[in-house]
Structure of Precorrin-4 C(11)-methyltransferase:
Amino acid sequence: MSALRGTVWFVGAGPGDPDLITVKGRRLLEQAGAILFAGSLVDQAATQHAPQGCEIRDSRDMTLEEMNAWLAEACARHETVVRLQTGDPGLYGALVELTRPLDAAGIPWRVVPGVSSAMAAAAAAGETLTLPEVTQTVILTRVAGRTPMPAGEELEALAAHRSTLCIFLSITLLHEVQRALRAAGWPEDAPIVVVHKASWPGAEKVVRGTLADIKRRCQDEKIASQAMILASPALGARLWPDIARSKLYDPGFGHRFRKASMPAGIATGESA
Ligand code: SAH
């Protein structure tokens, strides 16, 4: 084998819409000698931007060992090798399993972040994941499938915080999501939004429901894959009669870019 010279770039392709890859990610695809992409979700981006003669391979039918060998061999032939993954590579993307063998082989690698489906789902639904005085915390999680949850990370325990939950990889386990939220005391009318194929042109579906009926609504829409479950006390806030204002835009709240024009609290009617 010739001397190693390439770098492996783990590039977040974004949630599906080919326009939602970062400029940096697209530039890397345009100069890639080889691209290993993760399944159907990102094939369009790979084929759209790759230069002529680029080696393009779908990793869907490969084992981890085969992927590692493919990436290492590609680095012996090309300066830029891209591993293209859905959303952001740091979320449920087997990043460590793929980078450890590269480290062991002395092959340099870098990560280019991507728009996660959690963000794309919120955007599709026109929802905010944080809202002043309602929730200021977002938990990205899943329920246990074949991958068990570490102790203390059971959905029931996380849901006890009553903050926003973005639940990945769990659409076929909606009954388990319902059970956990109920056990944590969420009411039956708690709003839940499921977004299928967020950002996919022509394919995106937003299903709005409650803890009580979200499973039936998803069944009615035949949603059984590629879906983000959003559970949050902030869902639907745009329809509420009254919300606490964000301090950032409160005239009484000065910050680096603006001086306060009135004492804090007056604009929102709260005591300082
Ligand atoms: N790294 C990815 C997540 C990969 S795990 C990210 O940051 O988004 C795969 C899970 O992500 C799916 O089971 C689903 O829950 C979610 N997902 C990925 N793309 C999606 C999309 N376009 N719409 C809704 N959910 C999506």
Q: What stands out?
A: Confidence is low (pLDDT under 50) at residues 265-272. The chain is about 25% helix and 20% strand. The first helix runs from residue 23 to 30. The CA atoms of residues 28 and 82 lie 7 Å apart.
